[in-house]
Write a structure and sequence with these properties.
Shape: globular
Largest sheet: none
Helix content: over 70%
Strand content: under 5%
Order of helices and strands: HHHHHHH
Radius of gyration: 18 Å
Number of domains: 1
Length: about 180
C-alpha cells in the first residue's frame, strides 16, 4: 500500500499526460504531490523526507515547466531527485553514525555495520544509476517514451531492485529459533 501511495503522483501524471498532455500532467503532478504530503501529515503528524524533497523539486521544476512552457524541466525532476538521494545515502556512509538505510530500516532489522554499509552503498548506486538512465531517456527519446519509462521503467527497475535487496537481506537475517516442547 505504501508503494502505491508513494507512486500515486506518478500514476496521476501518466494518466493526465495521456489524456491532456505534458503541461496539464505537470500541474496534476504538482497538486498530487501537495496532497500526498498533506495526507501523510494528517495521518502521521509528521513529514517524510522523501515526500518533502520530491515536493520541493516538483514545485521548482514543474513550476519552471509551466511558467516557461518548456517540458525539459519536468523531465529533469527524476534525475535530480534520484541523484540527491544518491548523494544523501553516500554521505551517510561517513556522517551521522548510521547509514541512511539503517536509519530507515534499523528499527525492524538487526544486522552488522558492514551489511548496513553494503546495503546503503547498493541503494546509492541504484539512485545514481536510475537518475542516469532517466537522463539518457529524456535526452535521446520522445516525450511519449520518457513518460512511459517514468511510470513503467522506473517502477519496474525499482521493483526488481527491491526484490534483489530482499534476497540479499534474507541471507543476512538471523534465523529464528523456536523452542520445541
Amino acid at each position: 500500500m505504501k508503494l502505491l501511495f508513494d507512486f500515486f503522483p506518478i500514476l496521476l501524471f501518466f494518466i493526465a499526460y495521456k489524456v491532456f498532455g505534458i503541461y496539464v500532467a505537470t500541474a496534476v503532478a504538482i497538486v498530487a504531490s501537495i496532497i500526498q504530503v498533506l495526507l501523510y501529515w494528517l495521518k502521521t503528524r509528521k513529514f517524510e523526507t522523501m515526500h518533502l524533497v520530491t515536493l520541493l523539486i516538483i514545485l521548482v521544476f514543474g513550476g519552471l515547466t509551466l511558467y516557461l512552457q518548456d517540458e525539459q524541466f519536468i523531465k529533469w525532476k527524476p534525475t535530480v531527485v534520484n541523484w540527491l538521494f544518491g548523494f544523501a545515502f553516500l554521505a551517510s556512509q561517513w556522517l551521522g553514525g548510521k547509514t541512511m538505510i539503517e536509519r530507515m530500516m534499523g528499527a525492524n532489522l538487526v544486522m552488522p555495520p558492514a551489511i548496513w554499509r553494503t546495503l546503503n552503498l547498493s541503494w546509492t548506486l541504484f539512485f545514481f544509476l536510475i537518475g542516469g538512465i532517466n537522463y539518457y531517456v529524456m535526452s535521446y527519446f520522445t516525450t511519449d517514451t520518457w513518460v512511459n519509462f517514468k511510470l513503467f521503467g522506473m517502477l519496474g527497475l525499482t521493483f526488481v531492485f527491491v526484490l534483489l535487496q530482499s534476497v540479499f537481506l534474507s541471507r543476512h537475517l538471523p534465523e529464528s529459533t523456536t523452542e520445541e516442547e
